[in-house]
Amino acid sequence: MSGAAADLPGGEPGAGLLAALTQEFASTLDIDETLRHAVDRCIAHLGAEAGSIFLLEGEQLVCRACAGPVDIRGLTLPAAEGIVGQTVKRNEARMARDVAREPSFAATVDAGTGFVTRSILCVPLAVRGAPLGALELLNKRGGDGRFGTADLELATTVAAAAALAIHNASMAAALVLQERVKRELELARQIQESLLPAPRDGGFAVHGRNLPAHEVSGDFFDFMPLADGRVYFCIADVAGKGMNAALLMARTLGLLRCLARRVATPSTLLAEVNAELCETTPLGLFVTAVVGFLEPLSGKVEFANAGHPPPLLHTTDGDWRRFAGSAPPLGVVDGQEFPTQRVALAGGALYLYTDGLSESRARSGALGASGLERLLAGVAPLDAALRLDALLGAWHAAGYAASDDVTLLVIDGAAAADDAACLLRRRVLATPTVLAPLRAEFAAALRGAGLAPRLVDELVLAVNEAACNVIQHAYGAAGAGEIVVQISNNGREIEIQVVDFAAPAPLTDIAPRALSDLRPGGLGTHFMQTLMDHCTWRHLPGDMGNVLCMTRRLHDLSEARGA
Question: In whole angstroms, how large is the CA radius of gyration of the chain?
Fold first, then answer.
């Protein structure tokens, strides 16, 4: 029997070897270092001239670590051929005591390296039956130079420990890679957000929102005032997901923004971008888009559509008009023309959206264009920027969820004057944890507007009480929904709007009552009435929620200037 036989029984050197190997393998999660340790220790304790570890990579076995007179790292073997391949395929150890009598032995490596193989011991590396590769030992030192049964048993035991260590190191490497990818995606998302236009106030007519389905988005919107007084706007959706779509999104946004400064018509703008994308975009990627220009004074809009969902015009009399496009997406057909369409807003609003919104689903089915029109009609009385936040709140409240990015853009013909006075607006979850941050944000905005400290405190108390009422009474046991809160200052009075998307509350139950009336309810509204000059409640159209409007006059210059 080989001298290695003494290494097998528990309590003898074999147990010590296994314990030492396990401890050494546990000392590092670096896969390459683990492989080197495994080979070196196996060669030393089994008395082999050379050894190597082959790991399964697709349809090949690749030598990832070796020791001995010849370095064969990187050598690839067919996954099911030769002694190593058969060991992995059958998940059972193989021993060729004399390779001259082994028909499956291929001398190709010996011929290329000059090494002479006489005896081979090969054991599988597997975890829970899943093959990882194989440990191969060559040429027993001393004696007749051949491995024996005891060597095979010891190598099998050692390989089990090595396989577990390799598996753990691989998992650790995968987690490190996953964390690095996560950080890179977070950075990519931050860069994408910086490319989108910042929210605008000051009576600006165009507003947009983007909700990515994943870390990075293939959707985008853009708008900017031009030197000739027009306002450029666009919305687009890149086919596909992940980094490819995100990179094409950034490139397309940059092209459109750059060309919009010198191109006169939407059709020309799309044609030039299309030519560039057809020339340089990989096959299978394309972009749907609507681009256009608004003349703010006349309220006239001209736009062109490249395979995007039809824009929706909501007129002042409540009618809807859809503008279907006939041209294909960008990056598909070179030389394509993109017809320009024109519309006078006349106080109405034009809505652009991506199919992530229209194809979002609830229990009742997909939202669709008609469902979107219903939601938009419900929030139409609100000013343009608040309207988008309210729409998304109503969308969530109705149980809709999207599997794709959601982007929405409004070109508002009224360009509500109230928006010019907006100090701050927020859309938050109706949970107690948002109250402290909400108070802090609104206090900072009011102080920044120069209001007197006492007035700031009273207004913040009114906002807090209104939000508490929504959390406690509007949503209550039904669970948290969303609240949209906005504070505006027109120089004469402060206006606070609080919008929720709970079931419409009976207006008679909301009305304040005398403090002497000890019935539950109504005290919060009484408190708000003492802080504000006027408090009014109404329902959103279509029973979509409730709107509280509170106003406080600036009685003298000391309040307005913070004196």
Answer: 35
C-alpha distance from residue 98 to each of 139, 152, 203 (Å): 9, 15, 89
- CA 556 centroid distance within chain: 49
Is residue 370 classed as helix, strand or coil in its secondary structure?
helix
Residue 554 vs residue 80, higher pLDDT:
554
Per-residue confidence (pLDDT) for residue 518, from 0 to 100 = 43
- Residue 274 CA to residue 256 CA, distance in Å, equals 10
Tell me which of 436 and 10 has the higher pLDDT: 436
pLDDT at position 416, please? 39
pLDDT in tens, 46-84: 889 999 999 888 888 999 889 888 888 888 888 877 888
Q: What are phi and psi of 554, to 5 degrees?
A: -85, 95
Q: Which two tokens stand for residue 66?
A: 């070796």
pLDDT at residue 520 in the model: 45
Pairing label, strands 340-344, 365-366: unpaired
Closest CA to 407 of 223, 279, 271: 223
3-state helix, strand, coil in the chain (%, to 5): 40, 25, 30
Which pLDDT does position 2 carry in this prediction?
Answer: 39
Phi, psi (rounded to 5 degrees) for 225: -70, 145
For residues 467 and 463, give the distance between their C-alpha atoms in angstroms, rounded to a whole number: 6
Domains and CATH numbers, the chain: 3-175 (3.30.450.40), 201-415 (3.60.40.10), 417-563 (3.30.565.10)
Q: What is the dihedral of CA 398, 404, 406, 407, to 10 degrees?
A: -160
